[in-house]
Sequence to fold (411 residues):
Amino acid sequence: MAMTYEMYEFRKLLKELRRKRGRGTELISLYIPPGRPVADVMRYLRKEYDQAGNIKDKLTRKNVQSALESIMQRLKLYRKVPPNGLVIFCGAIPQGADRGTEKIEIYVIEPPEPVPSFRYVCDHEFYLEPLEDMAREKKAYGLIVMDRGGGLVALLRGSTYQILEWVTADIPPKHSAGGQSQRRFERIREERVHDFFKRLGARASKALLPYLNELEGIIIGGPGDAREKFEEGDFMDYRLQQKVVANLPLSYTEEQGLRELIIKAQDYMREASLYEERSKVEKLLTMLATRPGAVAYGVGEVVRALQAGAAEEVLVLEDVDYEYVVRTCQNCGYQESEIRRSSKAQSKGWTCPKCGATTFTEEKTHIIEYVGELAKQSAAKVSIVNPKSEWGEQLAALGGIAALLRYEFSS
Ligand SMILES: [Zn+2]
Fold:
């Protein structure tokens, strides 16, 4: 799947947090799992606050205690921990080279997946691993590794896997008696193989059907041709059978084969995600050639379409170089906005059209964030496109941003 705006936003925040450094071990990371009573967490934090009173260095002590105070203040706003839990990062971040320039920064995050366990970490950087894990590709794939000797069924999520089933075959080894008994022997052997395929199919169905909705695909692999015979024979439930997206040759079976298949499957998934991106851009280009009124392109047009609620799906290059700027007159509060290249420096001279004053402030938002927020309001989809691709270049030729429209719209 192409990257969504939500994921883009989440990864961007993580990148920002990764750069934050405290002077001492002054930065607090707090992970609260769903269902944990807020009062319990408050009690825990108050205890930490008291213990921080023992910190020898006066400034460190002050910074840790102020951070804890900020966290407790924020936590008071919650009667209950949100459905996925809550993650809070807080600490004194130096704003300059000197000691004493630190400012308390706080980030409160409702994560996209449930917080696995309670953690309180005090360090010179924020503890981000559990969130980094959530930022990784998480689609599930069913994997089947097999040959005529046996098979296993596993579930792959991101880079972690879980073996759900082992199925062994009960097949007599080949021998060469010759003649009549040889033919009978071969027949028995074929029956046993068929029987094993049936059992493997049934066990795979039972193991994977509970994950049907989240399964992006099923990948089969193994040495020899058993894997192909298994797929051709429709031994699995038809709903799973339809999800088979690849059948790959492997050198090994069992767990070693599984590890081999995971590496190959990850290549396949990368390809699949690129393929999806490419098809989206191609669909847009086809539309542009056949029904140009159903497409908006260029930053101005796309933003107007979004504001009108006319955009259905926006494609935007990850490195698109625009920003949305709101200028406020410092004298009378008059505001105006514009979209411009981010590489341009702050507007030089400006005179307020209302009061004639020349002092003003500017607030800038990167265009992807601006577009993402507009899209949320009208339930439009946003896909972030990799600029270093052929289709990325095609999108760049349209100004780096384009949208498929719900209805023809002229701006
Ligand atoms: Zn003014």
About this structure: The first strand starts at residue 3 and ends at 4. The chain has three domains: 3-135, 140-271, 292-405.
